[in-house]
Prior knowledge:
Layout: H1 3-17, H2 22-38, H3 54-57, H4 73-76, E1 87-92, E2 95-96, E3 109-112, H5 113-118, H6 123-129, H7 139-146, E4 152-156, E5 166-172, E6 179-181, E7 184-189, E8 194-203, E9 209-219, E10 224-231, E11 237-248, E12 252-259, E13 264-274, E14 279-288, E15 293-302, E16 308-317, E17 322-331, E18 338-348, E19 354-363, E20 368-377, H8 381-389, H9 394-410, H10 416-429
Helix pairs in contact: 1-2, 2-7, 8-9
Amino acid sequence: MELKEKLVSSFMAFEEQIDVNSDLHELRTLAIKNFENKGFPTKKEEAWKYTSLNSVLKNDFSVFPKNENNIEFADVKKYFLHEIDTYKVVFIDGVFSSFLSSTTHDGIDVCLMSSALNKPKYKMVIDNYFNKIANLDESLTSLNTAFANEGAYINIPKSKVVDKPIEIMYFSTGSEAALLVQPRNLVVVGENSHVQIIERHQSLNENPVLTNSVTEIFAQKRAIVDYYKIQNDNLEANLIDNTYVSQKQETNVSINTFSFGGNLTRNNLNFYHFGERIVSNLNGITIIGDKQHVDHYTLVQHSTPNCESHQDYKGIFSDRSTGVFNGKIYVEKEAQKTNAFQKSNNILLSDKATINAKPQLEIFADDVKCSHGCTIGQLDETAMFYMQQRGIPKKEAKALLMYAFSNAVIESIKIPELKQRITKIIATKLGVKLGFDL
Length: 438
């Protein structure tokens, strides 16, 4: 049985297993019908022109894990930001792990999506925010919505500066021959509040896994959100990440995506503006090799005046790897005084590596500053020669140049311990040990 048919036939069994209110039942039913009509995206769709899921969908994925698995903290400690104290929401094969988690209801809610969906005390928040900006016209978002039950629920009330970062961790143990997981995260940040969130998906063995994740982020007036996605998984892991961001006036939301591992990674990142003096930052670093594939698809919809958006994506591709950047800035007629900038810079280290870049501007306002740019090239041989003449070995010189190339995005990391961790991952990916000055 193909995966699509397996998912559609499993839907009724899924709803019988969970406590679903009538509103969610109607939403889920609509979502599964949308997915049944559309199916998985193909290269015939313009948005998926350079990314095929065919090889991934050949696996016989288990829709629900058959066994409940436990792992020891010592086995996964290296994946956490253990240098500092953090709140933690941890899932093993899609199931919440209370042993590894550190949640809270002390002034803020850092807990489970399943609790929020099914407990009356969360109903007002769920009614106001759940699935309000997720795009059900996108088939994989519809699929996630149909099966949405578990994930992270984060609600930060008005005028709260969260005292420590929040880590959302998804581990796959490999107890199934192949596993499909569909996390659903909801983040609501109140007026004048500030939060830092780190999200990571990690396989613990080489069995195939497909993660179809949806995250909705709502930033109320003057809120600040710093969100970091670490994608450094095994070569049998596949991630489709759909993130939707709603910003009210004077908010500042930054999403930083670090794509280093995995077989196929697709990041769909959508920002929507609902007020003036909004700032949106989209940053990314991609360093891949082998036959890895990373696709960044971004949209910033400027609907209101006096707002800014900044996109800065760096890519380094070696071996037979493939990168895709499809970025779109949409400026509506009412969005005068918009400043929108988009940049995609890429380095190809192999003749067989590929990058497909498609920056787009759609502007309907006449008083704006908008630009986009894309570069694709190789390392500067003159700079390499200069560094080698001064005693720096070729391998280290090459790594230094690539690190400098990525540095603008690295500097956007606001958590010093995370900045150091990302720097070490980059050094490992570049195959060197350098004491970078942080």
